[in-house]
Amino acid sequence: MSWITNIDIDRVANIEVLGNTVQNYLVMTCVVIGTYLIFSIGITFAIKKLEKLAAKTETDLDDILIETLGKLKWTIFLIIILIAAPTLLEAGGKIATFSRYAIIIILTYQGVRIAGILIDYATTKATEKADHSSFIKPFGTVAKVAAWIVGGVLILSNLGYDVTSLVAGLGIGGIAIALALQNVLSDIFSSLSIYFDKPFKPGDYIRIDDQEGTVQSIGIKTTRLTSVQGEELVIPNNTLVSSNIQNFGKVKKRRIQFTVGICYETPVEKIKEAKEIITKVIKKTNDAEFDRVFFKTMAESNLKFDIVYFVQSGNYKDYLTVQENMNLEIMKQFEKAGIHFAYPTQTLHIKKS
Questions:
Q1: Distance between CA 68 and CA 110 in Å, rounded?
Q2: Which one, 76, 194, 228, 236, has the greatest CB density within 10 A?
Q3: Quick count: other Cβ atoms within 10 Å of Cβ 158?
Q4: Residue 350, SS3?
């Protein structure tokens, strides 16, 4: 081992390799190791503290951001090294230029990745709240593609390339595509109007002009309904936005008006009793809210009662169930009271000469 003691340390330290001395490389190595130890301990401690704080909040956005920060720690460490390298090493500006370009690419790449994570988070939350998954997810994909395009243009611009013609070309191409897909874009913007205005949602029963059905899905270009007969109706979103829409799904309670006719031979006391029977039946029927009952009209062949009540549901099947139960009970009570329903009849009087 005596040969080691005979080595001239100063001489070895001043040996140049690729324009830098061994001493510079040793200093750079020590800086890298020291930075790694300090940074690793610090970022780990910070993430644990942030995770404890995030556990106390109701939103999960902070959890996403902390998870993203954990994935970025090596990127941050690499950027610190790239910033320090030009200061500690000399290579005629080549290292500084390389470091600058590398930092630009890394920052842009990570920025686009973070944007993609936030877009995924936003689309997931919007889908959970609005049940428009078939509509929202494609817009999320388009937004991420746009983020990558913007990121690529920024990288080229910072690397010294003239992107003016590229941006102009993208603009002209966008105009040409917009003109070619005018009807499609009209439906897409209409779908945005439907999403923000929310005139209906999947599961609602709606009527548009002479078409009606239950909304199954709301897409970028079309909305799909299932009619009562079972066939699928595909309606362009542009047509929906420009039409009058009746949304029965938003009905909280349904107003029902119907009539009951009894025979002309019915005595006055029985007419009053019939009114009381109808009133009691409506009030006792589940999910029915009584409004009024009046002996309104002496029609051609019957004495007619005008009846109004509310069903405490917007569902059409619930209304049919309530009306059926009510009709059966009215018939039962009329039969017990000896009150007879009228049907179209004519009485012919023949005068003897």
A1: 10
A2: 194
A3: 16
A4: coil
- pLDDT tens by residue, 156-166: 777 777 667 66
Extents of the domains making up the chain: 19-156, 192-249, 254-337
pTM of the model: 0.47
Write the DSSP assignment of 73-130 as a string of letters: HHHHHHHHHHHHHHHH--STTHHHHHHHHHHHHHHHHHHHHHHHHHHHHHHHHHHHHH
Bigger pLDDT: 206 or 17? 206
Q: How far apart are CA 302 and CA 316, in angstroms?
A: 29
Is there a contact between 227 and 276 (Cβ–Cβ < 8 Å)?
Answer: no
HEC-encoded secondary structure of 252-296: CCEEEEEEEEECCCCCHHHHHHHHHHHHHHHHHCCCEEEEEEEEE
Distance CA(245)–CA(208), nearest Å, equals 5
Pairing status of strand 205-208 against strand 20-21: unpaired
Tell me the pLDDT tens digit for each residue of 178-233.
555 556 566 677 777 777 778 888 888 888 888 888 888 887 788 889 988 888 99
Report the C-alpha gap between 123 and 130 in whole angstroms. 10
Q: Thinking of the domain 192-249, which architecture would CATH place it in?
A: Roll (2.30)
- The answer to whether 260 and 341 have CB atoms below 8 angstroms apart is yes
Q: State the architecture of 254-337 in CATH terms.
A: 2-Layer Sandwich (3.30)
Q: What share of the chain is helix, strand, coil (3-state, %, to 5)?
A: 60, 15, 25
Instruction: Pull the structure tokens for residue 238.
Output: 């542009």
What are the phi and psi torsion angles at 144 (to 5°)?
Answer: -70, -40
Instruction: Match 């049907």 to its residue by tokens.
Output: 343
Q: Name the E strands within the chain.
A: 16-17, 20-21, 205-208, 211-218, 222-226, 232-236, 245-247, 254-262, 288-298, 303-311
